Amino acid sequence: MDRPSYRLEHMLSFVFNAFGGARNRVTNLLNGVWLGHPVHPPLASLTTGAIGTTVALDALSLLPGQAATETRDAARFAERALGLGILANFASAATGVTDWQHTHEKDRRIGLVHGVLNLIATGLYIQSWRDRRRGRHLRGVVTSAVGYGITSASGFLGGALVFGSGIGMDQSGERLRIADWTPVLPEAELPADQKLKRVEVDGVGVVVCRDGETVSAFAGLCPHLAAPMEDGWVDRGRVVCPWHGSQFNARTGEVVRGPAAAPLPCYQARLRNGMVELRNGAPSPLGVAREKHLTVQPLPCPKISDVKEIAR
């Protein structure tokens, strides 16, 4: 199964690259960057719900003792629900194959079987819809019921990918929880060349980098598939994942480019007394530089005559 799966991956790469400058926008849309969560699971739920509604209405339409009007109404609404399920299935397939493109080994094989089963089920749903339109109601009912059984089996495999392997889940790991500024690294060990360095703080891996006098700190694992972020790099203010190329804003952790959908957890960081210090909380969008003490000069109090002149 590996050879056809990698050929399919290469074909997907050619398809996405054909979008040119819009490639990142298209993949971000399909990966769910705009949502902060993969889009495939809710679309798959919509598909299953719509087809399940179709099967339930079909069962009602076949119950004995139903009036002709009730039977026609149930059949009509079942056909509409089936059409919605087919459309949702196409959208689910587009998002699912985009997520699958970045899986490996066992997960890739399970995902391939999952996709093939859904493809077969979609073909049965389309045939069922055509049969219903041509007046072959019973045949359409049987075909959609068989497709629904295949979709259920495929959903079991999809659940194994999510809950067994964490595909689509935030895998950035445990969060750092320190409320006070805590020294974690001597300033001399963090050169101002934007190279990433991993430190352990209270048993939690944190990656820090420095750009001049500004320090950034974020989680040690990529939210996508737990890649070690210290092996990545910084490019034009973006932290790049070393495995699949996900890009995050180095200051805020916001996803700039998928396949990651969840943001990269970031922390407040500063340079003080020759040490790099960290604490909880969202960092400033402009970053935190070396702490400086500012002297505030009081403004002179205006004269009463000046105030009267301004009022006039």
TrEMBL record:
Kindly name one Pfam family recorded for this protein. Answer: Rieske
Q: What is its main location?
A: membrane
The domain of life is Bacteria
Mark the transmembrane ranges. Answer: 110-126, 146-167
The Rieske domain covers 181-278
Query: Which locations, inside or outside the cell, does it occupy?
Result: Membrane
UniProt-listed InterPro entries: Cholesterol_7-desaturase, DUF2231_TM, Rieske_2Fe-2S, Rieske_2Fe-2S_sf
Which molecular-function annotations from GO does this UniProt entry contain?
2 iron, 2 sulfur cluster binding; metal ion binding; monooxygenase activity; oxidoreductase activity, acting on paired donors, with incorporation or reduction of molecular oxygen
UniProt keywords (A-Z) are: 2Fe-2S, Iron, Iron-sulfur, Membrane, Metal-binding, Oxidoreductase, Transmembrane, Transmembrane helix
Query: How is this protein annotated for GO cellular component?
Result: cytoplasm; membrane
- What is the protein name given in its UniProt record? (2Fe-2S)-binding protein
Instruction: Tell me the organism.
Output: Mycolicibacter sinensis (strain JDM601) (Mycobacterium sinense)
Q: What is the lineage of its organism?
A: Bacteria, Bacillati, Actinomycetota, Actinomycetes, Mycobacteriales
